[in-house]
Design brief:
344 residues; mainly alpha; 0% strand; globular
Length: 344
């Protein structure tokens, strides 16, 4: 039996979501101390070599604009996706090495990580013809039809609450709620400004919740409900992309015929994974904060289904990704700390 005080016991304790003390919220789980010491013996010499030679800082600093520039031109020069992803990893690492420790580094690395996530989301659609052959259209509809007892929940919501051909107050309110996907980032900005000592763990968990969605965009390209309805005629063509209609009505423009980014990157919902990991972090502070966070998760889930952006299946996978980040943190913490110590 695993005894209290041992690393395995702390890992098992991670299953519930209790309120955590400030030290835990700041530093995270202190798991596997033996492994941390072993990795520290590797990371310290690396850090010493990096800081002993200023040229490494210069190389790291130069790598950031070079990588970003090559990535922006990847389609023109026919760069292989694997090479593009390798280049995408250079800006976060380059910022971590070149920018002095402190708020400027947090800001630079956060921006570089969001650039990497955006790349991971867009990259599969660089070759839409190849991606189209593997596109999931009917699979999520079948699952959601079972969940919705004969019709997808999104279709039921639009039938019950929308007036086709009109933009209602509900459409506008739910669109604003959907557009609040950046709330986890605003909370992170608050941590950055007021409690920078909490920034490394908070930022790492949010980044993990985003980046763990990226393999799905490559492995399981999926058409969102609005695309399956409008472009493939599924669900009787009844699902509308409400958000686009609301935005075009606000701007006085006609709906565009193309969709920038990756229209087939809807599985899973990064909106839900990021909101959920934020709710989990708020739950560590206290029950009231946790209730606020989970209320937002429920509201966000309603908005993305009602607006025709996601299926219930996408929400469930987003929830599972956030839970995987929470449960995997004790396992990943020693390795993340070793990398951080190597470049700090």
């Amino acid at each position: 039996m695993v005894q209290a005080g041992k690393p395995g016991f702390r890992l098992c304790q991670n299953a519930p979501m209790p309120t955590r003390p400030a030290r835990y919220r700041r530093q995270g789980p202190d798991s596997f101390p033996g492994l941390q010491r072993a990795l520290g013996r590797v990371s310290r010499p690396i850090n010493g070599r990096l800081r002993a030679h200023p040229r490494w800082n210069a190389v790291a600093e130069a790598s950031v604009p070079i990588a970003v520039g090559l990535i922006a031109r990847r389609r023109r020069i026919g760069m292989h996706p694997a090479m593009t992803l390798v280049l995408g990893c250079m800006p976060p690492l380059g910022c971590a090495i070149a920018v002095p420790r402190g708020r400027r580094r947090y800001l630079a690395v956060s921006a570089a990580y969001m650039h990497l996530f955006k790349l991971g989301w867009e990259l599969p659609y660089d070759n839409p013809q190849r991606l189209r052959r593997r596109l999931w259209i009917d699979q999520p509809i079948r699952f959601d039809t079972i969940v919705g007892l004969g019709a997808t929940p999104g279709l039921r919501l639009q039938r019950a609450l929308r007036r086709r051909g009109e933009i209602t107050a509900l459409d506008r309110v739910v669109s604003v709620l959907y557009a609040s996907w950046f709330l986890p980032h605003l909370l992170l900005a608050y941590v950055f400004a007021r409690h920078p000592e909490h920034m490394p763990r908070a930022g790492a968990r949010l980044a993990a919740a985003y980046h763990l969605t990226c393999p799905f965009y490559f492995l399981t390209p999926q058409a969102p409900p609005w695309w399956a309805s409008e472009q493939a005629g599924r669900m009787g063509g009844e699902i509308e992309r409400v958000l686009r209609l609301v935005v075009c009505d606000l701007l006085g423009r006609r709906p565009p015929t193309d969709d920038p980014g990756n229209p087939w990157g809807s599985m899973p919902s990064d909106h839900i994974s990021s909101a959920t990991i934020t709710a989990m972090a708020l739950s560590e502070i206290g029950p009231l904060e946790g209730a606020i966070g989970w209320t937002y998760v429920v509201a966000a889930a309603f908005s993305i289904v009602y607006l025709g952006e996601h299926y219930i299946a996408d929400i469930l996978v987003g929830l599972l990704i956030a839970e995987a980040v929470r449960r995997g943190e004790p396992l990943a913490a020693p390795f993340v700390r070793a990398v951080a110590h190597a470049v700090e």
